[in-house]
Write a structure and sequence with these properties.
alpha/beta, TIM Barrel, 7 helices, 30% helix, globular
């Protein structure tokens, strides 16, 4: 089986709450897309204090698709956050960003875009808790999966088998099988889950 972490891309707390309630019976954590309109063209929710106040009863992995993520790590030091994912392409100092995340007691994940080489993060693997390989260019849902990233997943799993690899973007039943065969441990899906007629069946189908 592969772990399925629903990905939530919303602009306000009410829509986040609604989606959390839909998936909470079927998963332990959710992936929360945070976009600044600068690193990516879209803008989404970005208010951890409000998130903490609502006590949604699930662990969050904020995916910081923002410029200079090192400046915003401490902002996400709330109980509900289990780990923080930042982009290699957006950080001025990757080691420092990892150190800041670990310094507030959170797990550290690094994301790489489809056209970023896996070699670019090889030196950081021993310090990370997660690698997130983007199957699409970050910013918007409903994009087609870029199959070129499958080799990247296989390479990273080969050189660091113990490090969980997650894939986000363009996940459906067809791409899920390719992603699993490549060696991924986790998949994050938005459209496939939330546009399905049955949330439970969608998550279970992806996890098999």
């Amino acid at each position: 089986m592969i772990e399925v972490i629903p990905a939530i891309l919303e602009k306000n707390i009410n829509d986040i709450k609604a989606k959390v309630e839909l998936v909470k019976p079927f998963c332990k954590r959710v992936h929360l897309d945070i976009m600044d309109g600068a690193f990516v063209p879209n803008v989404t929710y970005n208010d951890p204090r409000e998130l903490a106040e609502n006590k949604l009863g699930i662990k969050f992995w904020p995916h910081l698709m923002i410029k200079h993520p090192e400046l915003f790590v401490k902002k996400w030091n709330i109980e509900e956050v289990e780990g923080i994912i930042f982009h290699k392409e957006a950080a001025q100092n990757v080691n420092e960003t990892i150190r800041l995340i670990k310094g507030i007691g959170k797990k550290a994940g690094i994301a790489i875009n489809p056209h970023t080489s896996s070699y670019d993060i090889k030196e950081y693997l021993d310090e990370l808790d997660l690698i997130l390989v983007m199957g699409v260019e970050p910013g918007f849902a409903h994009q087609a999966f870029n199959s070129d990233v499958l080799d990247k997943i296989s390479y990273l799993k080969k050189i660091k088998p113990s490090l969980p690899i997650a894939v986000d973007g363009g996940v459906n039943m067809e791409t899920r099988n390719k992603i699993k065969r490549a060696g991924a441990d986790i998949i994050s899906a938005n459209s496939f889950i939330f546009n399905s007629g049955n949330i439970k069946e969608a998550i279970e189908a992806l996890a098999l």
